[in-house]
Structure formats: C-alpha cells, structure tokens
Design a protein that fits this description.
The chain has 414 residues and is of the alpha/beta class. It is 30% helix and 29% strand. α2 crosses α10. Bound molecules: flavin-adenine dinucleotide.
Amino acid sequence: MINLNRRQFLLGSLAASISLALTKPAVAATPRVVVVGGGFAGATAAKYLKLWGANNVEVILVEPNASYISPILSNLVVTGQMSLSSLTFSYTQLLSYGITHEQDSVKTIDKTGKILYLESGKQLTYDRLILAPGMELEAITGLDNNLVPHAWKAGPQTTLLQEQLSAMNAGDTFVMTIPKAPYRCPPGPYERACVVADYLARNKPGSKVIVLDANANIIVEETTFSAQFANYGITYVPNSTVTSVDSTAKSVTVDQNGTPKTYMAKVLNVIPNQTAGQIILDSGLANDSSGKWAMVNPLSYESTAAANIHVIGDSQATSQPKAGHIANSEAKVCALAVLQLLAGGQPYSQPVTNSACYSPLSSTTATWLSGVYRYNATTQTMDLQVVKSAPTPSTQYFSEMRDWAGNLFADTFK
Ligand SMILES: Cc1cc2nc3c(=O)[nH]c(=O)nc-3n(C[C@H](O)[C@H](O)[C@H](O)COP(=O)(O)OP(=O)(O)OC[C@H]3O[C@@H](n4cnc5c(N)ncnc54)[C@H](O)[C@@H]3O)c2cc1C
C-alpha cells in the first residue's frame, strides 16, 4: 500500500508538471487526444488524461454504446447469480471529467493526415490517438452465435448462454471450447467450466461438463483448476482445436493431434480464437509475428507501426495478459506518456503495471491470480516481476472478489 501511495504521488507530481508545461504560451492550440473504445482500457485513459491534463488537453471518446457491460464477473450472470444490469456502467459519470463522447464507431484511419473517419460519415482530427477496441473473435465454419453463444463479450451473448443453461434438463451435456492462447482473460474459460459445473450439480443433477481446450494444458492456476475439475467430474480434453460447428445440431468437431472427433451437446459454448480489434487489423497495426496483435513501445504504448497512435488493452502485444485490471493499469501509463509527449517531454522510463484476476469457482468460493510487471530497459519489454495466486479457494476470496471488482469499476467508469 505504501508503494502504491508513493507511486500515485509520483504520478500526480509528474502530471502536475505536465499541466504546467502544456500551459506554456508556446502551445498554440489545445492538443486533441481521441480515445477509441470505452472499455477498461479506453475509459481509464480518457478519465486520467482529463484528471492529469485538465483544460490543457481536449479528450474525445469514440464509443458506439451509451454504456459499457463488463465481461468481468459475467460468468456469474451465466449461472443466474448476478444480473447483467449490475455489470452495466453508463458513461455519464465519466463524461463529467470534461470528456466529449462521440457515440459512433471508427471506420478507417488516415494515419498520415491524422484523421478518423466514423461510421456516421463524420471526420475527427487528432494530435494523438489512443486505440482501445478490445479483441475480435475469429470466424469458425458453421458457427452461428445466435444458436451457439461465445458469451466472451458481455451483453446479449451472456443472456443467451444463461437462458440455454437454465433450460437444460437433468442429465444433459454442456460442452465448451477454449481458444488457443493468447486470448482475453487467461483463467476465464476454466472459471466458466467450474461455475457451470457447480450450477448443474445443484440444479440439473447428473449433467455432464466437457471442456475441449486448444492448448496443451490448463494455462494458468493449473493445480487449482485441475483439482476443481476432478472435484466436479469435468471431462477435460487438451490439444482439441475446433475445426467446425453444426450450430443447429449443437455439435462441435475438433482436431485432436491429427484425429477428428465430434462432440454432441445440449448446450454448446464455443469461444473462438481471438485477434486485436478489427480497426487495428484494418489499419495495418497488427504487426506482431502472428499478424494478430499490435506491437507497442511499453513506455508509451505508441504503436511500432505508426507514429502518434497508441494501442492499449486486449489489442496490444506485450508480455502482459489480455485482461481488464491490467488494461486499466496500461491506460494510466499511456495517458501520462501522451501528456508528457504533448508537452514536449519524454515518457516516464520505469513503468510498473499490475494484473489481477479473481475467478469464482462456485456460487460461494473464488480463487485469484495477480502479477506485477516492470519495464526492462535492456530488452524493452515488460517483465513479470512477481506472480502470486490464492493458496486455496475460499469464501473469503469470493467476498474480496466483489470488493476488488467494485474498486476497478469505480476507478474506470466513475
Ligand atoms: C468471463 C470473463 C471474466 C473476466 N475476468 C477478468 C478478471 O477477473 N480480471 C481481469 O482483469 N479481466 C477479466 N476479464 C477480461 C476483461 O474483461 C478484458 O480483458 C477487458 O474487457 C479488455 O478491455 P479493453 O478495454 O481492451 O476492451 P473492451 O472491454 O472489449 O472494450 C473495447 C471497447 O471498444 C469499443 N470499440 C471496438 N471497436 C471500436 C471502433 N472501431 N470504434 C469505436 N469503438 C470501438 C467497443 O464497443 C468496446 O466498448 C474477463 C473476461 C471474461 C470474458
């Protein structure tokens, strides 16, 4: 806590000196920063740009929705324990910091002219652009999300999966697939398998849960999730890559080390492989070795493919996970760096970020995983310095999970 307060103090002091630098008469017009996407990354960036830059920066948030629905805790909506409305955050409070909300989507970017073309036909110029569009789900042959939900972006998909689960009969089979890493929220799919199995054990006795994982093993908290899977009697099949889906028949075909195998389900939950947000792909910013994610300089999150464009949150390709808590952390580093750059300075040279994922494992117990990342000037990467996880799942962690999420939601949207 002492370290955090010291860091907050340092960030505050840096921000104060930037405000002063930005007010120098040499700065002709108020610089404009446009933030695209109002999720954990974008909303935080917009808020902290205004908190630290005050009237010396104009901040426009381009986001098509009037409110944000959090994927965090949404597995508890799937099991009926929480409502979607309790995870829905209006942008009203965020805008009170002096941010302008352009309720629209960015269609194309003119990187040279620094112009955004919006779906409505409107154009917006920028001095610096922060892209935070989250992730996109890859297409799968035969997959119709109106019949087979992914529920990996929260909203109607979450409700659909919840309705399908509640309509299951005792003894039915739930099949879910886990995408190849990297994907949004590493523990999330394993967490879902556990809370669904818990729900079925309590409400639909004799039902089965089958987990088909494209990865070779459980990629995080393996000991905890393996124990939970054994406890719930979940069938876990690694090295299972989805090749096609029959959405009407509710069947999925996977490749298991060269052998095709088809699984039938009453409820099928396919979570496809993922890429950076579509606007990142369309703008030629997905320049990592896979061609799916955006490489950035972790000091400022400036794209290595285009000047004056920063990428934060799920879309970025650093060693940091694709998760909401760390997206909030990246956004603060980025907001500060953007203000420093606009003031003619350089970004802070030793950024530290933090990740935390709480996973409910039943209706009353949870586990957690947390990591601290520090910039390594030699390799120019964010190195994992400390990683800790819950020793054993508990009801105390379940209650701490609600406090942690409440703090994150407030810091991002309020
Ligand atoms: C079941 C589940 C559990 C999770 N649990 C945790 C957890 O415990 N801890 C944790 O840290 N993370 C967790 N996550 C992950 C977390 O939700 C995501 O990593 C996080 O939402 C990413 O934030 P983001 O801002 O990058 O993207 P998003 O939250 O997806 O926001 C992107 C925004 O950009 C907008 N947008 C996209 N394209 C455009 C465009 N062209 N123009 C304008 N706007 C656009 C979208 O409308 C959207 O509002 C969980 C996820 C799931 C699914």
